[in-house]
From TrEMBL:
InterPro entries: Rhodanese-like_dom, Rhodanese-like_dom_sf, Rhodanese_C, TrhO, TRHO_N
Coiled coil: none
Signal peptide: none
Record key words, sorted: Oxidoreductase, tRNA processing
Domain annotation Rhodanese: ranges: 124-217
Highest taxon, organism lineage: Bacteria
PROSITE patterns according to UniProt: RHODANESE_3
Protein name per UniProt: tRNA uridine(34) hydroxylase
The family this protein is said to belong to: Belongs to the TrhO family.
Entry function: Catalyzes oxygen-dependent 5-hydroxyuridine (ho5U) modification at position 34 in tRNAs.
Amino acid sequence: MEDKAYRVILYYNYTRVENPDEYRDQHHLFCVQNNLLGRVIISPEGLNGTVSGLKEDCEKYMQYICSDERFAATQFKVEHHDRHAFHKLHVRVKEEIVNSDLPVDPTVRTGKHLEPADFKAMLNDPDVVLVDMRSNYEHQLGKFKGAVTFDMENLRELPQHVSEIEHLRHKKVITYCTGGIKCEKASAYLLDQGFTDVYQLHGGIIRYGLEEGGENFDGRCYVFDNRVAVDVNQVNPEVISTCHICGTPSGRMVNCANAECNLHVPICEACSDQMEGACSEECRQHPAKRPYDGRGYYPTPSNNYTPLQGFKSRKKQLRVEGKL
């Protein structure tokens, strides 16, 4: 892997967090002091984040997390990048570290963790079925060969689709997602529904690509930062997505330039230029269409926001609420 100045870190840890609001403030301030940007979610059930920063700052951040005994076992997926992968820093408290509404607790029971090498060894097992736990636009851009996919917008819809794999309940079912976090709950839910032999790819697609070269992952992997999509397969890559406009093979994922549409679709470079970043002629002529700069990614305008401002705003809110 080419060494670059910046790192992009993806991680999660399901563990009980007392006083998540208090830890949120501590965590946010550490990120500010170490020039980190990204999205971090803290909840009573754990910690989940993707952040970017200079190599040295990211190393401090990983040490900071692991120095807390609650998060000492956190596994990090670390990718090299040539710049920040985010424009802002948000550290928020939520009910769940990944939205699911599934009635399961991954700290009690979940699918058997498969390390990337073990996952690779099982790919040719005829008794194995891979099940993708990601959203439509993610698996349309890239997925493992032969994987089962669901027509769902988010993990909350999983109960509506379990019947589609009912006939596979006695197979070796391996769930996978981008970084592994969704599968902690998805695999637990399948076990609750009577599936008997359930696994999950530990660390997800990203870790499999980093450690095993991504063999048999077709297309590209959607990520939730400025990069939008990343290459995973260094062994037998194949483009499976097609341009939303002309239908030619394209793994170039963009957001429609029309802010009121913002559709996540593959659009080739030629069509993007012709349509000025829009997914249709209607969107190209829409008054809410944003200027197209060739990337197809549109961060929220900053309004002079800074990470420290976000921290101060949080403290001010707590004072108004009488919590400080």
